[in-house]
Amino acid sequence: MLVTGTFLSNEWGQFIAQASDEGFPWEMSVHVAVGRSEELAAGATTTVNGKEVSGPLSIWRDCVVREVSFTAVGVDPNTSASALSGLLPQPSEEHVPMTPEEQQEMDALKAQVATLEQEKADLKTANEKLEAEKADAEKAAQEAEVDAELSAAGFHRNEDGKGFKGVSAATYGVLLSAKPEDAKAMIADLAPSGHAKPAVPGGLLSDSTLKDKQPGATLSGLAADAAARKNNGANYV
């Protein structure tokens, strides 16, 4: 059982507190009015005030504490009482109103604090704006670098000026979010092959035949070769 309280400021209260501070082993006396009593048999267990207890013992319920005292020798030797100086009553200080000069100084300090708080808020807003501008500048620089790498690799812009032919919007987004060295390597992988196929001769793609030529027209290419072989003879072994 733990009981706490406050000493009176009279001579008896100060006497008990001083004796406790000097190490006197006070014991505690308590007068409890028991509402009802229960007997717990030996070996039986139950819970009292959130703690499990075992019999045999008497359990007092619906009790009222009528009196608590510091005593030199208590009925129960397993008690103790101590005085804590922090619990002694402290003299109350009478409120003294500030002088006009003190009030003026206090108002000036409050105004200074308000100004500092506003400056702090303004600096925070300015820093957030600078961070946003920095992020936009880094994004623009990254986009310009990616565009330059794509152009150097042989890619051409779309007619609307947005993106590049042969590069999907998803791929372009990945390039913009990648590190510069990674973006450069990916663009190299995407670049068209440098070994272009030779152009097909126009004569092979023409529907013209020898009979379509007008008399006296000059033949060239495969048509001229075929005409020469015809003049040399129609039969070949």
* Category from helices, strands and their pairing: alpha+beta
User: How would you state the average pLDDT, rounded?
Assistant: 79
Considering DSSP H and I runs of 4 or more, what fraction of the residues is helical? 40-55%
Topology order in helix (H) and strand (E) letters: HEEEEEEHHHH
Please give the number of β-strands. 6
User: Major beta sheet, specifics?
Assistant: 2 strands, antiparallel
Uncertain segments are none
Gyration radius, in Å: 52 Å
Beta fraction of the residues? 5-15%
Distance between the termini: 131 Å
Envelope shape: elongated
As laid out across the biggest beta sheet, the strand order is 1-6
Number of separate helices: 5
Coiled coil: 99-147
Region (Disordered): 194-216
Keywords: Coiled coil
What can you tell me about this protein's structure?
This protein is α+β, with helices and mostly antiparallel strands and 237 residues long. Among the domains are: 11-41 and 51-87, no CATH class; 103-190, no CATH class. Helices cover 40% and strands 14% of the residues. The longest helix is centred in the middle third of the chain and has 53 residues, at 100-152. The N and C termini lie far apart (131 Å). The mean pLDDT is 79.
Layout of secondary structure:
Elements: H1 11-21, E1 27-33, E2 36-40, E3 45-48, E4 51-54, E5 57-61, E6 64-71, H2 100-152, H3 169-177, H4 180-190, H5 221-231
Antiparallel strand pairs: 1-6, 2-5, 3-4
Task: Give a brief description.
With 237 residues, the protein is α+β, with helices and mostly antiparallel strands. Helix content is 40%, strand content 14%. The model has no long low-confidence stretch (mean pLDDT 79).
